[in-house]
Amino acid sequence: MQTRVDIVLSPAQAADAAAVRMAAAQAAGLPLDAVTAVRQHRRSIDARGRSVRVRIVADVYAGEQEPARPSAVQRLRSANPARRVIIVGAGPAGYFAALRLLEHGATPIVLDRGKDVRARRRDLRAIQQFGIVDEHSNYCFGEGGAGTYSDGKLYTRSHKRGSIENVLQLLVDHGATDDILVDSHPHIGSNKLWLVVQRIRETILAHGGEVRFDAWVTDLLIHHDRVRGVVVHGTEELLADAVVLATGHSARDVMRMCVRQGVAIESKPFALGVRIEHPQPLIDSIQYHTSVRDPHLPASSYKLVCQANGKGVFSFCMCPGGIIVPASTSPGELVVNGMSMSRRDSPYANSGTVVTVDESDWASYAKHGPLAAMEYQGAVEVAAFNSVADASQRAPAQRLTDYVAGRVSASLPGTSYIPKLASVDLRSVLPAPVDRRLRQAIGEFGRMMRGYLTEEAVVVATESRTSSPVRIPRDRDTYEHLGIAGLYPCGEGAGYAGGIVSAALDGQNVASAIAVANGWT
Ligand SMILES: Cc1cc2nc3c(=O)[nH]c(=O)nc-3n(C[C@H](O)[C@H](O)[C@H](O)COP(=O)(O)OP(=O)(O)OC[C@H]3O[C@@H](n4cnc5c(N)ncnc54)[C@H](O)[C@@H]3O)c2cc1C
Question: Each residue of 217-230: pLDDT tens digit?
Answer without folding.
Answer: 999 999 999 999 99
